[in-house]
Amino acid sequence: MRIIVENDYHSMSKKAALMVASQITLKPDSNLGLATGGTPLAMYDKLIEMFREDEVDFNEVKSFNLDEYCGLEADHPNSYHYYMYDNFFKEINIKKENIHIPNGKADDFDRECRDYEETIKKAGGIDLQILGIGSNGHIGFNEPAESLNVATEVVNLTEETIKANSRYFESKDNVPKKAISMGMATILKADRIILLARGKNKAEAIKKTVNGKISTQEPASLLQTHPQVTIIIDQEAASLINKKDLSADCHFEICK
Ligand code: PGA
């Protein structure tokens, strides 16, 4: 695990965007696993800027989003379909047929989840997965629990997540209670993973993600089992990391 502490949100987003762009330069038909939420927004902005400057080309890229709320139409302003088109896809040259996001309005959710897994597998797996992290340590919508899902499944959102995400909805009651989410193995099968976090409210979750112990109550801690994880965070999110608690193979660097 490599932990990179950047000065601020702008520099961490830029670093993540450069890593995504270099992945695409090395493999133009890369399969990207993408995340929503507030954290990756500036990374998407930087990638759009790089696309406009001809520094990255999404023509052959395939994308696979981590999750989607159950019950929201693709054109609902709070759906992750809408988020992705509005904040990223409409500004770049990714082909529509190469965009994959779970269907929150599927007639048969079990089938939707199975098909989503199959589509990722058929595409050859994910080359680079981008992740945010919940303040409760969730990745995708894999919420803290006694056991975690292996593959893509419908999940119940925790009160903490519903509360955190209610900032985007009219009220807490409007937040869907269920979502389709990639499972832990779906995520951990990616060749490379970048996890982004910023702000004090992520500091505790980041500490538990890197502290050399693994628990299903802290889903992000399972990333310690993956050989190619880069955690890019700002100073506030890094503020509770105690270097002596880091897992043995952790590489920690503070960027000035
Ligand atoms: P955030 O969400 O980027 O809006 O903080 C991250 C997450 O819940 O995974």
Question: What's the short version?
Answer:
28% of the residues lie in helices and 18% in strands.
Layout of SSEs?
Blueprint: E1 2-6, H1 9-26, E2 31-34, H2 41-52, E3 62-65, E4 67-69, H3 80-87, E5 99-100, H4 109-122, E6 128-131, E7 153-156, H5 159-165, E8 178-181, H6 184-188, E9 192-197, H7 203-210, E10 229-234, E11 251-254
Parallel strand pairs: 1-10, 1-11, 2-3, 2-6, 3-5, 6-9, 9-10
Antiparallel strand pairs: 4-8, 7-8
Helix pairs in contact: 1-2
Bound molecules: 2-phosphoglycolic acid.
Please explain how this structure is put together.
Helices cover 28% and strands 18% of the residues. It is α/β, with parallel strands linked by helices and 256 residues long. It has an eight-stranded parallel β-sheet, covered by helices on one side. A three-stranded antiparallel β-sheet has the order 4-8-7. The longest helix has 18 residues, at 9-26. The two termini are 20 Å apart. The mean pLDDT is 97. Bound molecules: 2-phosphoglycolic acid. Residues 37-39, 132-134, 138 line the site of 2-phosphoglycolic acid (PGA).
Shape by Cα distribution: globular
What is the overall number of helices? 7
The helix/strand series, from N terminus to C terminus, equals EHEHEEHEHEEHEHEHEE
Q: Could you say which small molecules are bound to this protein?
A: 2-phosphoglycolic acid
Structural class: alpha/beta
Q: How far apart are the first and last residues' alpha carbons, in Å?
A: 20 Å
Percent of residues in beta strands: 15-25%
Q: How many DSSP-defined strands?
A: 11
Radius of gyration: 17 Å
